[in-house]
Amino acid sequence: MLLPRLGVNVDHVATVRQARHALYPDPVIAAGLCELAGASQITVHLREDRRHIQDRDLLLLRKTVQTKLNLEMAATPEMLRTAFEVRPDTVTLVPERRQEVTTEGGLDVIGQKDALKRFIAELVQADIHVALFVDPSVEQVQQSARVGAHAVELHTGRFCEASAIGRAAKEVRAEEHRRLVDAAKTAIKVKLACYAGHGIHYDNVADIASITEIEELNIGHSIIARAILVGIERAVREMAELAREARRAALLEKRT
Q1: Is 43 exposed, middle or buried, given 0-12, 13-18 or 19+ CB atoms closer than 10 A?
Q2: What's residue 256's pLDDT?
Q3: Considering only CA atoms, which of 189, 201, 178 is closest in space to residue 141?
Q4: Dihedral, CA atoms, 180, 233, 101, 168, nearest 10 degrees?
Q5: Which of 6, 37, 54, 187 could cysteine-pair with 194, CB 3.0–4.6 Å?
Q6: Which of 61, 90, 56, 85 is nearest to 73 (CA)?
Q7: What confidence score (pLDDT) does residue 171 get?
Q8: CATH number, position 141
Q9: With the C-alpha atoms ordered 199, 232, 251, 131, is the resulting torsion angle positive or negative?
Q10: For residue 52, what are the domain limits?
Q11: Which of 155, 198, 213, 216 is catalytic?
Q12: Predicted TM-score (pTM) above 0.85
């Protein structure tokens, strides 16, 4: 993959709206602006408690998104019915707990292999591309292939948050980066597409984008936060260019 695709998660646009239960800002309009700025995909997470994205948003996004629509969701009967109705281009299965502020970790594919295999089979039968959001574990990636997924999205949170860990941050970052590289290489070996997301921001995106096996980045909070200051189109363009520059440099280094 020459350059990584950028998927923009517009959940936090809806978070601002829901803080006042207003009609604005509208994540559907934000999604269109992201696409105009070069986003290759729009990502939303429809949660059980509807804390940000609403069913109305998802239905309108399906009608208006011109690139690809990626629906993050839990593996529940309600969400399966939603996926069948909306027909997103990709469903990314994620763990979900009501108490969490944001998704805290990857799916335990190994521990839930039988249930996930049945759930994924229904999505595949409906011709929906399925990704699993997993921790950067070789074993979890291998099991993702066995249960029938098309792709894995590697949870980059621990790597991205390592700067807050303290004196051992450098060692933690190095170890977490190695785990991401190993998991990404494993994904390619078992014929899964490899994506990455969670906690990626403007200061660390180059580290993730330089892993050449990763073909897609899904980024939300940092882009929407920057958009408040510089506008959403500029925020998206800047992130996309940082990712492209890092990928070009990594590919050039591989050739030399």
Answers
A1: buried
A2: 80
A3: 189
A4: 40
A5: 187
A6: 90
A7: 85
A8: 3.20.20.70
A9: positive
A10: 5-255
A11: 198
A12: yes
pLDDT for 166 equals 58
Q: In sequence order, which residues have a C-beta less than 8 Å from that of residue 133 and are 6 or more positions away?
A: 72, 92, 93, 94, 95, 103, 106, 107, 152, 153, 155, 197
Q: Catalytic pick from 45, 52, 155, 177?
A: 45
Alpha-helical segments (H) within 113-230: 113-125, 138-146, 157-160, 169-189, 205-209, 221-230
Q: Using DSSP bridges, classify how beta strands 5-9 and 193-197 pair: parallel, antiparallel or unpaired.
A: unpaired
Q: Which residues of 119-135 are buried (b: 16+ CB within 10 A; e: fewer)?
A: bbeebeeeebbbbbbbb
72 is catalytic: yes
Whether 48 sits among the annotated catalytic residues: the reply is: no
Those residues whose C-beta lies under 8 Å from the C-beta of residue 222, and which sit 6 or more positions away, are: 200, 201, 202, 239
What parts of the chain have a pLDDT lower than 70? 1-2, 98-104, 163-168
Q: What is the pLDDT of residues 199-215, one digit of tens each?
A: 999 999 999 999 999 99
Residue 238 is a catalytic residue: no
Report the domain count for the chain.
1
- Whether the Cβ atoms of residue 243 and residue 209 lie closer than 8 Å to each other: yes
- In this structure, the number of other CB atoms found within 10 A of the CB of residue 2 comes to 9
pLDDT of 96: 83
